[in-house]
Amino acid sequence: MTEFFKGIPKISYEGPESRNEFAFRHYDPDALVMGKRMEDHLRFAVAYWHSFAYEGGDPFGGRTFDRPWFGDGMEKAKMKADAAFDMFDILGAPFFCFHDADVRPEGANFAENKRNLEEIVEYFAQKMESSKTKLLWGTANLFGHRRFMAGSATNPDPDVFAWSAATIKTCMDATIRLGGENYVLWGGREGYETLLNTDLGKEADQAARMLEMVVDYKHKTGWQGTILIEPKPQEPTKHQYDFDVGTVYGFLRRYGLETEVKMNIEQGHAILAGHSFEHELAMAASLGILGSIDMNRNDYQSGWDTDQFPNAPHEVALAYYEILKAGGFTTGGTNFDARIRRQSLDPEDLILAHVGAMDMCARGLKAAAAMLADGRLEQLRAERYADWDRSENAAMLRQGDLAAIEARVLSEDINPEPRSGRQERLENLVSTFV
């Protein structure tokens, strides 16, 4: 145990009546939900970047946190890793996630970046031998450094494209070395600021070629993990090409990659796109590309991505309802892509933010499972579409033509009356479980 988290106990389940803030009230890893352990349903992951690399800054002010591992050099990077694995142990976290830039110091060139990453990956591997925490996914930070100001895969400079491709390879290698179950591509600056200097077709082709090479490298290495894309509509660019699930799926279909890639969907990004989280999850499930989630929330008074820990039972329950309906996670999980507020300075704040979020997700999971077991929501949904099961209506959808349908409407004097969507009744039903 490092000094940073000294005195903070390991978190265990004590039940809903517990007054101990350093305890789980709803998250019982071994509790069975729909015949499966809660830990195996939720598959929690700690985000390395927000928990250990974030310094407490915002667009109007700099660093507020004082962490002993802040600074350059491999010694600081290893100190950060020590603190990270201490926190994983305190929480009993089954997984973590990282970008390359979160875990290694920035080198003078690509070769030094690669050496630094490989060294810290071996340090991780040693620590993982005595830890229950595994790697949910790795990714590359291709947006933070000034070289990426015009994108990485979509950059007009071929040298930036090459640097990005090489960096992705090293991060995929790191993910494979650590037994990671997924690799994520987030287009942090894959978009444009103005159409006056942007060739949309060329940039789309470049992005597709990069993704094709990622898929090809996966197959060449024999890695059995999942390639994930994380949609986001804007911020930091004015318009990003991975706007939402539907947009990404259209891109995948355009380039014949829809069977190779799934989605890592973030709640905050869904809101920025003008959707609900459950909409994006349901859309991905309907398209067969639901892979994993980043669980957080936005402040609805702010117009930007605030990455706060989840605390809305209704929203979380509806999210897990869609996930359970889709069959649950396979290689994916629940990554807390969330950060504590810049005034939350204490080590205890970092631990308790995760404790509360894990409890919130457990509450949502239990509510979602109860709704599915109850069955009324699905029954009412089925009733709404039941007339499509009639033979004449099924035939109309399958092989009808406009002239034949017109003749049927005339002969049967079809004159439909509106039917209630029962929205408030359904919302009331959901509220009985949350």
From TrEMBL:
<feature type="binding site">
    <location>
        <position position="230"/>
    </location>
    <ligand>
        <name>Mg(2+) 1</name>
    </ligand>
</feature>
<protein>
    <recommendedName>
        <fullName>Xylose isomerase</fullName>
        <ecNumber>5.3.1.5</ecNumber>
    </recommendedName>
</protein>
<dbReference type="InterPro" id="IPR013452">
    <property type="entry name" value="Xylose_isom_bac"/>
</dbReference>
<feature type="binding site">
    <location>
        <position position="294"/>
    </location>
    <ligand>
        <name>Mg(2+) 1</name>
    </ligand>
</feature>
<keyword id="KW-0859">Xylose metabolism</keyword>
<keyword id="KW-0119">Carbohydrate metabolism</keyword>
<dbReference type="GO" id="GO:0000287">
    <property type="term" value="F:magnesium ion binding"/>
</dbReference>
<comment type="similarity">
    <text>Belongs to the xylose isomerase family.</text>
</comment>
<dbReference type="InterPro" id="IPR036237">
    <property type="entry name" value="Xyl_isomerase-like_sf"/>
</dbReference>
<dbReference type="GO" id="GO:0005737">
    <property type="term" value="C:cytoplasm"/>
</dbReference>
<feature type="active site">
    <location>
        <position position="99"/>
    </location>
</feature>
<feature type="binding site">
    <location>
        <position position="269"/>
    </location>
    <ligand>
        <name>Mg(2+) 2</name>
    </ligand>
</feature>
<keyword id="KW-0413">Isomerase</keyword>
<dbReference type="GO" id="GO:0042732">
    <property type="term" value="P:D-xylose metabolic process"/>
</dbReference>
<keyword id="KW-0479">Metal-binding</keyword>
<feature type="binding site">
    <location>
        <position position="266"/>
    </location>
    <ligand>
        <name>Mg(2+) 1</name>
    </ligand>
</feature>
<dbReference type="InterPro" id="IPR001998">
    <property type="entry name" value="Xylose_isomerase"/>
</dbReference>
<feature type="binding site">
    <location>
        <position position="266"/>
    </location>
    <ligand>
        <name>Mg(2+) 2</name>
    </ligand>
</feature>
<feature type="binding site">
    <location>
        <position position="337"/>
    </location>
    <ligand>
        <name>Mg(2+) 1</name>
    </ligand>
</feature>
<keyword id="KW-0460">Magnesium</keyword>
<feature type="binding site">
    <location>
        <position position="305"/>
    </location>
    <ligand>
        <name>Mg(2+) 2</name>
    </ligand>
</feature>
<dbReference type="GO" id="GO:0009045">
    <property type="term" value="F:xylose isomerase activity"/>
</dbReference>
<feature type="active site">
    <location>
        <position position="102"/>
    </location>
</feature>
<keyword id="KW-0963">Cytoplasm</keyword>
<feature type="binding site">
    <location>
        <position position="307"/>
    </location>
    <ligand>
        <name>Mg(2+) 2</name>
    </ligand>
</feature>
<comment type="subunit">
    <text>Homotetramer.</text>
</comment>
